[in-house]
Structures are given as structure tokens and as C-alpha cells.
Write a structure and sequence with these properties.
Elements lengths: L1 H33 L13 E7 L3 E8 L7 E4 L12 H7 L5 E4 L16 H16 L3 E6 L2 H11 L4 E7 L12 H18 L2 H11 L2 H9 L8 H10 L7 H8 L7 H4 L8 E5 L10 H7 L3 E5 L7 H4 L1 H14 L3
Parallel strand pairs: 3-4, 3-5, 5-6, 6-7, 7-8
Antiparallel strand pairs: 1-2, 2-4
């Protein structure tokens, strides 16, 4: 009886594994055959649309608006699987009438170059620095969203003469410190390399991304970051951006963890010499436990808590928030 049960259990397990294998193969076939990976990203803006060719970061898609002699403003979106400059468009549209404003797509996202290359934090830092130096041509204020706050801070620490101030919306890296050993860190780094090698296997890399970038998942991602209604155009743009040729290369690196900047608070935030304004809210999974201490220790830092938002305060608290942005930038224009 036991042998019969074991045999039945073994056949059941083999059946499950075979079913999973068939489902995986079917999805790979469907992804490559029927999902459009050449969608046209069409952002309609009353602004100049250009491409800047960076020696280090490749072709960078950007919009420019506004004029005058005030300090220019550079907007940098955060990184997630469907990221792009559309995540900061309300700020772009609000401040174009009062100063030169630029919004860029970071390498591998939006309308920027999406080739298969080694995406690393240093590339994103260089994209910000190079764009300010060689395209804007004068020192600029920088507003960065989410994990891109680390890249903007790296740029500001290395080139303080080119970045006049930083506005960081929900920056990462303010959680309580978790001490680790060199051996553990080495293990984590190797694990990331192995995971990335798996994610980059051509047979299933794009199908994996297609599963993660379905319209349902894109919609869910943004709904979790808004307290009220999500702009329909935002979801459409994010979905379209995720279905262009090469759109999966940078997100796979992001998914592996290799775009995270370790110890960013100690290495970069605490050493900044430019003025910093931090806006934070109730974004799920993001901690700001160490922020009050840093603001207290650094007189050129200020922070504002947006209590009724959860990830996209610049979409939902435009009135009060934009007044504070405007006062901060005017104060540090000269």
C-alpha cells in the first residue's frame, strides 16, 4: 500500500512539474509571438523634445520648457519596472512658466537608450552630471524621486559647483541601520550576480518582464501609490514605455538589486554640502526612521511630511508642496 501511495505521489509530482513546464513554455511562446514590443511612447507636451547623446550614458531623451535667468531645474524620475519622466510631469508643467525646466529619461527607461549594457549606479550618476554640464550648461537645482535620490546625491557630492540644491521626494536609505559583515556582503553581491545572470538568459528574460509589466500589474503599482484616483494617462504611458524594444534590460538589472546604492546615508547624504529639501510620505515599504536625526544635524537640510499621500505627493498635494518648492528654489537661486 505504501509503495502504491509513493508511486501515485510521484506521478502527481511529475504531472505538476510537466504542467508547469508546459505553462512556462507556452508563456515564452506567447510573449515572443503575440506581445507588441515596439509600442510608440507618445508624451504630448507643450515643450521642446530632444535627445542628448552622453558619452557615458548613451542617448538621453528629455523635454525642456521655460526661459529666463533663474537657476534651471532638472527633474529626475525614480526607478521601478515601468519608470520614466512621466512620473515627474506635474512638476515640469508647474514650473516651466517661472524658470528653465528639464525632465530626462534615465538610461534604459522611457524614451532613452535601451540597449543591453552594464547598468550601474555610476551610469545614472554620470547621466545627471553630464546632462547638467554639457546640455544645460550652468549649475541647476535637481529634483529626484525615490531611489534616484541616491544618484542625484552622488552627483552633488562629486560636483557641488554644478548642483545648486536637491529636492528629494521619498528618498531611499533612511531606514534603521542593519550591521553586516564583509563576508555576508560578499555573499549578497555574489547572489545578485547569479540572480542577474538568470534574469538575463535570452530565452526567458523578456517573457519574465512581460509577465511583470502587464497592464494589470502596472495599474496595481500606481494604485498602491495614490490615495485618490490615478491619472489614466500615467498608466497608459508607463505601460507603453514597458513595451518598447529593449525595455526589459535595465529593469532586469534593477530587479536583481544591483542598482541599489548600499549605505547611501553614510556615504553620500551625510556628506552633502548643498542645501537639501526632503519630502516624505506614507509610501509602502519605505522607512524614514533616520531622517529626523540627519535634518537635526545638518542646518542646510529641511524636511516636510506629506501625511495624506503614499508615494506620489507631487501629484496629489500640488498647492502646498509647490509653494514650498518655489520658496526653497528662490532662496538658493543665487
Amino acid at each position: 500500500m505504501d509503495k502504491k501511495d509513493n508511486k501515485t505521489g510521484g506521478l502527481t509530482l511529475l504531472g505538476i512539474l510537466a504542467g508547469l513546464g508546459i505553462a512556462k513554455a507556452s508563456w515564452i511562446f506567447y510573449s515572443k509571438r503575440y506581445i507588441d514590443h515596439h509600442a510608440k511612447l507618445n508624451i504630448i507636451l507643450d515643450a521642446e523634445h530632444h535627445t542628448y547623446h552622453s558619452p557615458a550614458a548613451g542617448a538621453i531623451n528629455y523635454f525642456a520648457n521655460g526661459q529666463g535667468d533663474r537657476t534651471p531645474l532638472l527633474l529626475v524620475h525614480g526607478l521601478h519596472l515601468y519608470a520614466g519622466l512621466y512620473d515627474v510631469l506635474p512638476v515640469f508643467e508647474a514650473f516651466g512658466p517661472s524658470r528653465p525646466v528639464y525632465a530626462i529619461d534615465l538610461p534604459g527607461f522611457g524614451g532613452s537608450e535601451k540597449t543591453d549594457r552594464p547598468y550601474r549606479p555610476s551610469m545614472y550618476q554620470e547621466a545627471i552630471t553630464d546632462f547638467i554640464k554639457n546640455q544645460i550648461g550652468k549649475p541647476a537645482h535637481v529634483l529626484a524621486l525615490g531611489n534616484s535620490s541616491a544618484y542625484a546625491s552622488m552627483a552633488a557630492l562629486d560636483e557641488p559647483d554644478w548642483i545648486r540644491s536637491l529636492v528629494l521626494i521619498n528618498p531611499r536609505g533612511f531606514e534603521m541601520p542593519h550591521p553586516t559583515t564583509l563576508k555576508a556582503q560578499t555573499y549578497h553581491d555574489r547572489a545578485k550576480d547569479i540572480f542577474l545572470s538568470y534574469l538575463k538568459v535570452p530565452l526567458w528574460s523578456l517573457p519574465i518582464y512581460d509577465a511583470l509589466a502587464s497592464r494589470t500589474r502596472v495599474t496595481s503599482f500606481y494604485h498602491n501609490r495614490f490615495c485618490y484616483s490615478v491619472p489614466g494617462d500615467l498608466i497608459d504611458l508607463a505601460y507603453t514605455s514597458a513595451h518598447q524594444a529593449g525595455a526589459h534590460f535595465a529593469p532586469m538589472v534593477l530587479l536583481s538589486g544591483k542598482l541599489k546604492v548600499p549605505n547611501v546615508r553614510e556615504k553620500y547624504y551625510e556628506k552633502l554640502t548643498v542645501p537639501v529639501f526632503v519630502v516624505y510620505d506614507n509610501e509602502e515599504g519605505v522607512s524614514f526612521d533616520m531622517l529626523p536625526q540627519l535634518v537635526n544635524d545638518k542646518p542646510d537640510w529641511k524636511a516636510f511630511c506629506s501625511r495624506n499621500t503614499r508615494g506620489m505627493p507631487h501629484f496629489e498635494r500640488t498647492g502646498d508642496l509647490y509653494r514650498q518648492f518655489d520658496l526653497f528654489w528662490k532662496k538658493h537661486d543665487q
